[in-house]
Amino acid sequence: MSGSADRLPRLLSLVPYLMSHPGAQVGEVAAVFGLSEKQLIDDLQLVWMCGLPGHTPGDLIDVSWDGGEILIDNADTIARPLRLGIDEASALLVALRMLAATPQLAEVQGTDDALPRVMAKLEQAAGEGAATVSSQVAVDVDAAPDALPRVREGLTKGRRLSLRYYVPGRDEVTPREVDPTRIVVVDGRAYLEGWCYRAEAMRLFRLDRMLGVDVLDVPADPPAEAEPIDVAQGVFRPSPTDELIELEVSAAGRWVAEYYPCEQVTELGEGRLRVTLRARDQDWILKLALRLGDTGRVVAPPAMAEAVRQEAERALALYAHRS
């Protein structure tokens, strides 16, 4: 932790530590914070110039390290250790729950009880508010019953898999025969990658959309042209036949241009963008538009803009009814 980006949080932790350990030795404190003695002295010299507005000697923190013994005074305003806010602790708890739910983690020795202990300590330290907020966030990464063990069996034995797979865009269940190649986790969701004989191409299948998985007594034998799918930029890859959608987003909605592959991005001033991208289906663009809320809107084609408006009205009506 020697970079400038790490220095402020380190100093905010260092001062409370020194206040609770008067007379601590330079070498001991450096070891606690993972620093060299020179790095620690540099930090102490910076602490010595910090304090309350006014910057008179009485306003600044008084710190000395003569003879290797660190003494600190006039630092009562930051004597308490740095605490996470509710939003920070909640985000961390949600991330830990997502990590605990990923299939690969089950294969790592010692993680079965380590993560629950960490989450319990974090909930206790952060307070009831963070635990309540994070518990209301559903992390949907669970596979269908028996899906993960059967997929692993197919991978281990090199056998073809028969799937009953739900396609939400068409609201239908399709049969698939797949030669499995690996399991990947993208954006917290587990996917089976394999050669799909229905599509005659490599495909990714979400484990939590598998309604049934059977291991066939047929060796998995993907064709020579089957290559791993690059998931570095996410799962979604638009097709040239997908419908072209035009969005206008505010500065708060600019993440769309960074998160999704776009055909064209035009600056409109004041941080706004006009974004043109391809939508794989209407449901997908409806969800994106509702997620954007007042930070973006669909402007073309008109039929899609109207569909978004109607969907938003239905959502508001449901909310008004429940409240």
Automatic annotation (TrEMBL):
- Spans traversing the lipid bilayer: none
Organism for this UniProt entry:
Nonomuraea longispora
Domain WCX: start-end pairs: 245-316
Q: Which top-rank group of organisms is this from? A: Bacteria
Residue span, WYL domain: 147-214
What name goes with this protein? WYL domain-containing protein
Q: Name one Pfam family in it.
A: HTH_PafC
Segments forming domain PafC HTH: 6-123
Which PANTHER family does the entry link to? PROTEIN PAFC, PTHR34580
